[in-house]
Amino acid sequence: MPFAIDTRLELSNPLCRILDKPHTDFTREDLVRVIEQKRLDMITLHYTALDSRYKELKIPVTSRAAAERILADGERVDGSSLFGGLVDVTGSDLYVVPVYKTAFLNPFDAGSLDLTCRFYTREGQPAPFAPDAILQRAAELFRRTTRMNLFALCELEFYLLSDAQPNAFPAAHQRGYHEAAPFVKSGAVVDEMVRTIARVTGAVKYAHSEVGYLEAVHSEVPELAGKRAEQLEIEMLPLPVEEAGDAVVQARWLIRNIAWRRGCVATFVPKLDTGTAGTGQHVHLAVMKDGRNVMTDEMGELSPVARGLVGGLCTHADTLVAVGNTMAASYLRLVPNHEAPTHICWSDRNRSAMIRVPLGWNHVSNLALLANPQQKTEHTEDGGRQTVEIRTPDGSAMQHLLLAGITMAAEWGLSHDEALETARNLYATADVFADPERLRGMKRLPKSCAESSRILLEKRAQYERDGIFPPSVADYVAKLLQAEDDENLRAYLAGLPDDTRQIEARRIMHRDLHRH
């Protein structure tokens, strides 16, 4: 039976329409047929290195045999450059091998077929230190231990910087949430981003403007100075956690490229200015069993599985910041009263908590029947939509390593009974900052990269068990964090005069606009 695809759905992967099959069924023969049919002259191989940026290798297609050879065996690359600090130059060659189901038509080069690759060693084994391989092993451990699957979606917050024009319909400071044109000026750029990401990844849920807005950025960095900054969010759809890492890296690559081609700059830097909303990268999680969401029980309340997941995340929250908050600016975002967590706790719909349980349509359905009495038939949907949201990570996250760490924390929570007790003890009923006594009883998140590095090294066994994280990875991450040299940063800034503090804080926030 042919794959049922509606050719009117222009936001689906064009290759699915051309080949009349889902992307999971793509074969080498299919892709060669696309190359010949569309007269493509380039294959671009992509892969994610330690900096969580989408790399590329452009290979001209000179013949059918050349295309088949590239798709069958990939190419070799210098691992010591892509994984500096983990791979020695004396044995640095790696193979990059395309994954057919990731194929897409390059939106910026009409002649290129693009694919995401995996890294393999000379022996034909997955490179153990590659972030995507670590995430894959973590996902396999979760499935093997729990007999379930972990799904993840990320909220990609970023600032779009553009030349400030005469400002009719000015936006209000810290009031931009879900604002529309003409008060938000970036609508056309966001439209292109959403459509393009949807066609490439198939995994966009929605986009909207966020709280943050600066009419003119104050900075010593030319890319920033004087630019209008609008904060935006593109939220992904849930994917198996091992696929979510690639989707996030791809989406960030597309966001940056589209911004650049439109004369703008997109940055995921954790904090752009004091008193202005920081850039988080919240991660929603759901546990699936036999294709069904098992986050709620028969009464629509959080299930033991969901509570175990929460308990695991709370237990290992202090180590997850090592890969989810990797810059000194990250810890200028994690401050009270800015919808960013500072303490390890969880709550329902409470944006001051580290973990939030958002509305999940558990006690209601077919709400549109209330607003549209003329509608007589109900909509039916198999499975639930409940997630839990960890709000700690930000735009500096090492994407695959973050999701791998989250997966291992989730696996621990579903494998240890004490996780349920942890969840019971760390539930917060109200704004955690409004109850000082309750706040004092909660464990704080690390306050600096330096503190995060120490905690990671102390508790590295959690991630190195079962051979999931190679020891060299924890050493690398700790060294990266220690290089931020921010042990006493908060005290240093607090001791400066107001004007000097502002200048110095901006210098720290803006020094690594595009690291990850």
Q: Major beta sheet, specifics?
A: 10 strands, mixed
Q: What is the distance, rounded to the nearest whole angstrom, between the alpha carbons of the first and last residues?
A: 43 Å
CATH class assignment of the largest domain: Alpha Beta
Query: Which homologous superfamily in CATH is the superfamily of the largest domain?
Result: Glutamine synthetase/guanido kinase, catalytic domain
In total, how many domains does the architecture comprise?
2
In short:
The chain is of the alpha+beta class. 36% of the residues lie in helices and 18% in strands.
Describe the protein.
The protein has 516 residues and is of the alpha+beta class. It is built from 19 helices and 16 strands. Strands 7, 8, 9, 10, 11, 12, 13, 14, 15 and 16 form a ten-stranded mixed beta sheet that branches. Strands 1, 2, 3, 4, 5 and 6 form a six-stranded mixed beta sheet that branches. Strand 5 (104-105) and strand 6 form a beta hairpin.
